[in-house]
Amino acid sequence: MKDTLHPGDHTAHYQGWYLRILALCLILSIIFGTVPVLSEPGTPIGNEYPRTVLDDQHVLVTLLSPPQRIISLAPSDTEMLFALGLDERIVGDTDYCNYPSEAAQKEKIGGFSTVSLEKVLALNPDLVVAADGNTPETIDRIRSMGIPVYYADAKSLSDVQKTLKNLGDLTGVSKQAEQLNKNLTAIADTVHQEGENLSHHPTVAHVIWNNPIYVSGSGTFQDELIHLAGGVTAFGDAEGHHIVSVEEFVTSNPDILLINTGSGMGSEGGDLSSYFRSEPRLANLKAVKENHIITVNTDVADRAGPRLWDMLEEIAPKIREMG
After folding, report:
1. Mean pLDDT throughout 281-309?
2. Burial status of residue 31 (CB atoms within 10 A of its CB: 0-12, 13-18, 19 or more)
3. Which residues contact 40 (CB under 8 A, 6 or more apart)?
4. What are 202-212's pLDDT values in tens digits?
5. Is the pLDDT of residue 18 over 90?
6. Any idea where the domains of the chain sit in the sequence?
């Protein structure tokens, strides 16, 4: 549902809520004898509670103590929680949460967009982490039950790092989040420096699906990774993920194909590269003729989590070699 406020009203709207929450935190601080802590970008947090962070729905999420029973409503959230070392506190996740392997052993609360509210309530969570794709009705219902919900909607690598920081602050593992983000930044910086040194920056087409051909454009994780690795996104003239025709693909004639494989979010699995190798209309593509095809796991390539940096380290040397 789209926001109907005018741009100038948004600031006043969020500031109003911010002041209300801050006032509530001050009241709680008097009752519990503590001082509320608000998480600001780049600001380390100590051990004090209550603490509040702003999520990607511009909702202030306040916790009175470190959460001990966390439910994840998306695979990307689950991967971030595990990366922060919070595996012992995760009590439930979705049917599609398959990484790391321990995630599969958690209690299941339904699908990505088919969350069972009964199962969520039965697990008695003190924090639920949601994501883009969970229905607004589900999120609103969980909040109406008095359960804190942090909503993550990362659109870039920096957004993923911001989410890691905010989750670290909320759960009391700020130091772990800070160190993880330092490691991720170091990986990106190293790869980017090597990519900038290329004499030729090859065009790379990231293919998500083949029927129809669905590719990544500008403003996507994949576009960002390709750029860091020293390449240029072949279909970067359009924003987001979009469909292109076979004719458009032939005209673009990318130097390298970066193709998803695996089952992804419950779709049929398989190696999509076989389509490009066998489709007669694509036989003369430079990438096909020179076998400049890189395959990547869908679960890694399309999830907003730390494994995007693993993918970057995997594809960068191949792009440099093929470029």
Report:
1. 96
2. exposed
3. none
4. 999 999 999 89
5. no
6. 7-182, 198-322
- DSSP annotation of 132 reads B
* CA 34, chain centre distance (Å): 33
- Beta-carbon contacts of residue 54 (< 8 Å; ≥ 6 apart): 39, 60, 61, 166
**Which residues are CB-neighbours of 120 under 8 A, at least 6 positions away?**
71, 92, 109, 128, 142, 147
Q: Residues 241-270: pLDDT tens digits?
A: 999 999 999 999 999 999 999 865 344 556
Q: Which fold has domain 198-322?
A: Rossmann fold (3.40.50)
pLDDT of residue 189: 98
The DSSP-derived string for 42-84 is T----S-SSEEEE-TTS-EEEESS--SSEEESSHHHHHHHHHT
Q: Does domain 7-182 have CATH number 3.40.50.1980?
A: yes
The single-letter DSSP state of residue 113 is S
- Structure confidence by residue, pLDDT tens digits, 91-125: 999 999 999 999 999 999 999 899 999 999 999 99
Q: How far is CA 278 from CA 205, 206, 288, 295, 320, in A?
A: 17, 18, 10, 16, 26
Token pair recorded at residue 23 = 């006032």
Q: What is the pLDDT of residue 323?
A: 80
Residue 315 tokens, joined: 């594809």
Q: Which amino acid is at 184?
A: L
- SS3 for 37? strand
Question: Among all chains, which residue has been given the structure tokens 């190696």?
Answer: 271
Please give the order of strands across the beta sheet that includes 127-131: 107-108, 90-93, 70-72, 127-131, 149-152
Same fold, 7-182 and 198-322: yes
Q: Report the predicted TM-score, pTM, of the whole model to 2 decimal places.
A: 0.85
The model's pLDDT over 129-157, given as tens digits with 9 standing for 90+, comes to 999 989 999 999 999 999 999 999 999 99
